[in-house]
Structure formats: C-alpha cells, structure tokens
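Question (not urgent): is this output format expected?
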Amino acid sequence: MLPIGRLYNYSAWPHYLRITPALEARWINSCRILRIDQAMAGIAPDACIPDGDFDPDRDLVHAPRLVPLNSAICLSAMRRMAMDGLSLTSPDVPRTESVPPVSVRIVLGGRMSGFSGFLPGIFEEVLLTLERGVPLYLLGGFGGAAEVVARALLAPPGTPLPDTLHADWQFGNAPALEALRRLQDMQPLPYGVLDTESGLARLGTAIENARGRLPQALATGLDDIETRELMETRDMRRAAALVHKGLIENKQFVMLAA
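Got this back:
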C-alpha cells in the first residue's frame, strides 16, 4: 500500500500573497503550501516585482504593468514543477525536502475565459500530462476546458481541432492574451514557459497523437469503452467508480475506511 502523507498545495505568485499566516497555520497538519515565486519561475531579478508593490486583492488589469506577465510566467512554471517535482531547502532544516512529481492527474471543469495564464490552465496541465505519459483521467462530461479537450480527443484521427484550441480564436476572445503578447516583446519568457502559440500547437499535436489509442495515450488502466465513457459521462458516481478502477490498475491505490 502506498504511504499517505500531507497534501501539497502549489500556489504561484502573486496568488499566494492571499494566503495569510493564520490560514497556513490552520492547514499545517494536512497541507503544505508550496509557493512558486518569481525567481523560481526564472524571471530575471531586475524584472521581479517586490511583493510590497502589489495588492493581491486588486484586479490584475489595474496592477503595475508587468504583473500580468510575471503572474502568467509563474503559473506556467508552477504547472511544470508540479509535473516534475522539486527539492526544497530551508535555512533551519538540515536536509533537503523532496516533493514528488505528479503521479496521476484527474481533470474536471476549468475556465475557458478569465484565466490568468497564456492559455487555459487545464489545457497546459493536460498537455504536460500527455507528454510525460502520466495517467490522465479526463472528466469531460461536466463542461469547461476539460470538455473541450475531451471532445477533441474523442474525435477520429485527422479531425480538425475545434476553434477554441487555436491561438487565433484565443487571442480574439481573450483580450488579456493580446496584452500578454505585447508584454512578451519587452521581457523574454524564461526557459520552459509556454506562450499561447507554442502551448496550443503542442497540445494539438498531443491530441492528434492520442486519438485512436486513448487508453494507452492517457494511461488510464481502463479499456477503450471505459476510457471513452469516463470522458463523456455526466454521472459523477460512475465517473468516480471508473477513476477508482483505473487507479487500482495503475497504482494499486486502495479505498480508505470511512
């Protein structure tokens, strides 16, 4: 049986500024907050915005000029670090703490508008998961970005991708993305950070490579009929049962006693 430990809660700059010491103390026995700051995301020191210069309760649109760009960079870096794992050092702790990489991803919902990054967060998470061959349980029947990706994956090989998975559509329907593109001309993106065009292009390739072989590409541990059912069902109980079955096949997970 796999050991059960504390949860890791990743939070990217500047969103973690809303996590107060009192809130973190309330979670201390069950959840470890992992703050992905600007330096960790690869932003140059002279381009980092001091925390004191930013009010986390203010709309990013009205924040200092580079805040939306630095925020998008940190979100992308956070998703990559979660997939790959990371090592943490602390001045008062003698040994390095290793945070394991994501071993399974379960995807549900997700914004298609009003997101803070270079592309919808679910899109980037699905892309990274597919590229690394990590088991992916995509609950597409409940709407949102997960449904967009699920429908694209379920289509026959060679079927054109929906407009929402193309950069032109995203730029035309998300004004904040055009502002990010202009900011990129002022500050190059750190290594590994996905911009809108490259992220969506890679996602389109990953989707086409997965079509017609969904159980293998998504590594669900389920057969083709079950994998497709999971991606389409609107019955949460059935979706949970299919995810549980796949986890047992893939990771030998067990149900905890109530």
